[in-house]
Structure formats: structure tokens, C-alpha cells
Amino acid sequence: TLKWNMRNALSLALSGQSKVGHDIGGFTGPRPGPELLCRWIEMMALHPRAVMNSWKPEVAPDWQAATTPWLYPEMLAPIRGALNLRTVFLPLMYSLAQQAALDGSPVIRPLFHEFPDDEDAYADQDAMMLGPDVLFSPVVVEGARTKAQRLPAAPHGWIAFHSGEFHEGGQTVMVEAPLGRPPIFVRGGAALVLASATPDVKPHDAPARRLYLAATGTSGSGQGRHFEDDGVSHAWRQGDALALSIALSWTDQEIVARISRTGLRTTPSSWSVDCPAGTGRGLKIIDQD
Q1: Which end of the chain has fewer CB atoms within 10 angstroms, the N or the C?
Q2: Element of type H or E holding 9
């Protein structure tokens, strides 16, 4: 089911319907076991739609039939980890959703969409891209606690998001994949705006952002973009929004991020910067406005 769901979502996204996801745990039918429920939540964590929508009257009466995150107490910690992961990446998903509204760019996409010259990217695999820079490789095999993933050839390689470990592109790597922590890789050169915390508020009300700079190797360049608005209206079309353009460059001595902005909304007051592959180098953030 998880394998089919991913391929179905990617096909829909390529066909112009990007805001896709699946009813976590299944809308009807039998109740998923503890591990399957956790892995299902993990997979939907980085899909545009992540909803526990179910009706299983054959399982239990009334409200007891619903699928909930706390269905299995022993899985609550890893499930919370997967849901927190969604909040961390939600600013990126929102920016990609706005881009999709402008020009139809798919929010999630198969690997060959970003790497058309890499023949291995066309192979059927249990992975997807979230935008151009994030490779998501959820676990779909029962009992697995590691995951083998081929990383497409990329000039600046890849960073394993959870560990910060660098991997060259064009090879298959084996990484840890415990429950609640699905493998994620960030393309070298990416400049991502993520959430720096997962508070118990609506994501648009969260005050803190995390600038993730994937500066790998001795030198290079890359870019990123970020968009946010009020989250409830179309006022962004009249400029009531914040759009950031980030130009990233680095040498073996220094990492530089040049940020320009447009729109009427102000930049969030609290920022942190994460350069997992840039230890020991100077960091310069230049506000070009």
C-alpha cells in the first residue's frame, strides 16, 4: 500500500495535481498495526496532504473506529518525531505550493524530474523529491531499520539531513532508518528555509525560522527561495507576502548567503543558521535590502 501510494501521488503531481496525500491508516478496512501506522505517518509527513481520515465501523463502534496518532502508546514517541519533521519542513512545502499555484511546478516529483540525465533516476524506486533539493526516501519494508538509497549524480553531493553526513552523488548509500526518522537527503548547494522549532501553534504563527545552507566541498554556489503570507487569503496576490531569494556561495574559508526580499510582510524576527557541512568556516549573511 505504501509503495502504491507514493507512485500514485507522484503520477498525480506530474499531471498538475500537486496537493496530494493519502488517508493515513486507510479510510476503511482493517486497522494498521503499530509499525505500519508509524511508517505511514512518516511517508505522509513530507507529502502536501497529511490527514488521518478514516471510517472503520467493522473495527470498533462509533468514534473508537477512528485512526489516531495515539492508537498505540508504544509508538507515540516515533510518531511524534515524524509529525515534528513535517512541521520543520512545512515552510518549504508552503513555498513549493505557492510556486505550484504560479506555474504548475509539482511540489513532489520523481527523481528523474530533477535529474533527467541520470539514467538510474528513471528506475522504479521508493523515493521522491520534495522540490528540487530534498530527496525523501521513506521506509516501506516491514521490519527494516536501514534503507539503501541511490543518490543521483549531483555536482556538490548530498547531506543526510538527520546525521549531517556528506555523501557523493551517483552511488547507493545505506543509512539508518529507525522508526520516526525516515531518511532525507539535501542536495549540496541548497539554501532552505525551515522551521527552527515545532511549537504547539499554527505553523504560520511560529516565530522562528531556520536557514539551512548545504555548503559542501571546498567551493561552490547554489540558491534557494522562500515564501510566506497570512496562510488564509489571496492577499499575497496584492503583495501582502514575504518572498526571499537566497544566493549561496562558499569557499574553503567562508560561506556567504545573500538574501533579497520582496513583498509587504516583514521577515520573522527569530532566525537560526545551520551549515552542517561548513564547520570551521566563516559565515556571512548579507541582507541586500
Answers
A1: C
A2: helix 2-14
Q: In 3D, which of 161, 218, 156 has the Cα closest to residue 194?
A: 161
> How far is the CA of 51 from the CAs of 10, 44, 253, in angstroms?
17, 8, 45
Burial class (CB in 10 A: 0-12, 13-18, 19+), 156: buried
Q: What is the pLDDT of residues 6-37, one digit of tens each?
A: 999 999 999 999 899 999 999 988 999 999 99
In this structure, what is the dihedral angle of CA atoms 268, 45, 177, 271, given to the nearest 10 degrees? 0
Residue of 29, 33, 23, 24 lying closest to 56 (CA atoms): 29
Question: Rounded to an integer, what distance in angstroms lies between the CA atom of residue 133 and that of residue 113?
Answer: 12
On whether the pTM is more than 0.90, the answer is yes
For residues 199 and 21, what is the distance between their CA atoms, to the nearest angstrom?
Answer: 23
Q: How many Å apart are CA 271 and CA 255, to the nearest integer?
A: 17
Best CA proximity match to 248, nearest among 277, 226, 223: 223
Using CA atoms, how far residue 24 sits from 28, 49, 52, 89, 196, in Å, is: 10, 10, 5, 19, 26
